[in-house]
Specification:
The protein is of the alpha+beta class and 503 residues long. The strands form three sheets. Strands 1, 2, 5, 6, 7, 9, 10 and 13 form an eight-stranded antiparallel β-sheet that branches. A five-stranded antiparallel β-sheet has the order 3-4-8-12-11. It has two domains: 229 residues, Chondroitinase Ac, Chain A, domain 3; 265 residues, Rhodopsin 7-helix transmembrane proteins (Rhopdopsin 7-helix transmembrane proteins, Up-down Bundle), CATH 1.20.1070.10. It contains 14 helices and 15 strands.
Length: 503
């Protein structure tokens, strides 16, 4: 019953705080037996009904605190229950490494799952004298933490709690997976004792296959318990992979063709100032999108921030910068329209207009990208744990892309509406008619490309919020492949020059 669980948790907490030292093996045996009762796999569902959501955290902290007071007369302690297993030993400074191996069942019908703690000889050399090492394994505590805290993660291994001297800064842990899967990646994590959550910053995933994960963790006062997580939102599909890379291939080829056409017909389509500025925007949109796609491919080939952290940071920075540049060059086109409609086009030198466009197109996204990196990376909150992209769960760094992009989409759509209303007043044959025609061409580009960009990244945001939806990922990949084509395709002047050039 939930009430009984809460009473036992409170009792265990009181015992751990009352006893200050000299816990012997008999006391540890009795304490573990009490904890084993509420760690039973049949009791997991009852934890959801406990009013105090922190009860499972209190239990973990209480057991760890009590075990840290254990004094070993013998060189080995082995206290084994079905749902809690404690191993302890005294290790001397010159030992040639040490390991603890646990093998426990998650429930009565499951196979045993193993977990191992390894201390390297190099780490043992850092300790000045003989010392105690204690490790406690829990097969069900991960599920209990999920149930009580309503975490959107799945613990996929034993929870291993360690009691070590402060001099030991690095330990290796090997977790056998409860759910064997080669499709879903695991993340090595440590339990943050103050914030009561799993924290990926405590560990690095060194190696992984479908059966087990090897972790290197940094135990300290904050992180004393470790495990592996399997995110339910992790989605890996061969179909999605093929669509993504084929789509990127189509996008890159289209962008290269677009830039090649611009080079070939540049002198023909840039005879007036407004045409020059318009095609300058088109060329830079294509160039920035090409660079963004290229860096996106680089990021996808990196195996995540754990093994290639610096490379992942660099790839994420450039993907962020160049995709933002695409949107800001679209904003530059919108500002160009407003300048042409609301002011007089020739009041400023062309060099000033070009400098202004480059400041908006490259300067603004560069400032945003640098600030995002500088604010979030020192705390290791720049990257997502499982991929080379901006973090969402911990620091919301992704907002540094989402907010500017969606704001630009709204501004551009408002601009298009204003231009449609304004240009209705320009009569055919008037002195302003030719410039209005040029502005309308820009307006067509924006009217088509802006909703496409907005729709594309709308689905991109949906893949973050609802990451297990294969449909959202496929739609995003397909739209991403089509982002460049409309900008050049709707430009009638560009098409006419190409026909003349080819004919």
């Amino acid at each position: 019953m939930p009430g009984n669980i809460a009473v036992v948790v409170q009792l265990l907490h009181n015992i751990s705080t009352t006893l200050t030292k000299d816990v012997n093996e008999e006391k540890m045996q009795s304490y573990s037996a009490m904890a084993n009762h509420i760690l039973n796999s049949k009791s997991i569902s009852n934890w959801t009904f406990i009013q105090d959501r922190n009860s499972s955290c209190v239990l973990l902290q209480s057991i760890h605190s009590f075990a840290s007071k254990l004094f070993m007369k013998e060189h080995l302690i082995n206290i084994s229950h079905v749902f809690i297993h404690t191993l302890g030993t005294v290790v001397s400074r010159g030992s040639l490494g040490k390991n603890f191996t646990f093998s426990m069942r998650i429930n009565e019908t499951s196979d045993k799952v193993t977990g191992r703690l390894l201390l390297s000889p190099e780490e043992l050399q850092k300790v000045p004298s003989a010392f105690q090492v204690i490790s406690i394994a829990f097969p069900t505590l991960g599920a209990i933490l999920e149930a009580s805290l309503l975490e959107n993660v799945t613990v996929n291994g034993l929870v291993l709690s360690v009691i070590l001297p402060e001099e030991l800064k690095n330990i290796s842990l090997i977790f056998e997976k409860i759910r064997k899967s080669g499709e879903r990646k695991s993340q090595c994590v440590g339990w943050h004792s103050l914030e009561s959550r799993w924290d990926w910053r405590a560990c690095k995933t060194i190696q992984e296959n479908s059966r087990q994960a090897v972790c290197r963790c940094r135990p300290n006062k904050l992180y004393t318990s470790f495990s592996i997580l399997m995110s339910p939102n992790t989605l890996e599909s061969p179909v999605l992979t093929y669509i993504t890379y084929i789509g990127l291939g189509i996008s890159i080829c289209s962008l290269i063709i677009c830039l090649a056409i611009e080079v070939l017909v540049w002198s023909q389509v840039t005879k007036t100032e407004i045409s020059y500025l318009r095609h300058l925007c088109i060329a830079n949109i294509a160039a920035t999108l090409l660079m963004a796609d290229a860096w996106f491919i680089v990021a996808s080939f990196l195996s995540g921030p754990v093994l290639h952290h610096n490379g992942c940071v660099a790839a994420t920075f450039f993907v962020h910068f160049f995709y933002l540049s695409v949107f800001f060059w679209m904003l530059a086109k919108a500002l160009l329209i407003l300048y042409g409609i609301l002011i007089v086009f020739h009041t400023l030198p062309k060099s000033c207009l070009v400098a202004s466009l480059f400041s908006v197109g490259y300067g603004c996204p560069l400032v945003i990208a640098i600030i995002t990196l500088a604010v979030t990376e020192p705390g290791k909150g720049y990257l997502r744990p499982e991929a080379c992209w901006l973090n969402w769960d911990m620091t919301k760094a992704l907002l540094a892309f989402v907010v500017p992009a969606l704001a630009i989409v709204v501004v551009n759509l408002i601009t298009v509406t204003m231009v449609i209303i304004k240009t209705q007043r320009a009569a055919i044959g008037s002195s302003m008619f030719q410039e209005v025609r040029a502005i309308v061409r820009i307006c067509k580009n924006i009217a088509i490309l802006t909703p496409l960009l907005g729709l594309t990244w709308g689905f991109g945001i949906a893949t973050v919020i609802n990451g297990h939806s294969l449909a959202f990922h496929i739609i995003f990949s397909l739209l991403n492949a089509l982002q460049v084509s409309p900008d050049a395709a709707v430009d009638s002047e560009l098409r006419e020059c190409v026909h003349r050039f080819c004919g």
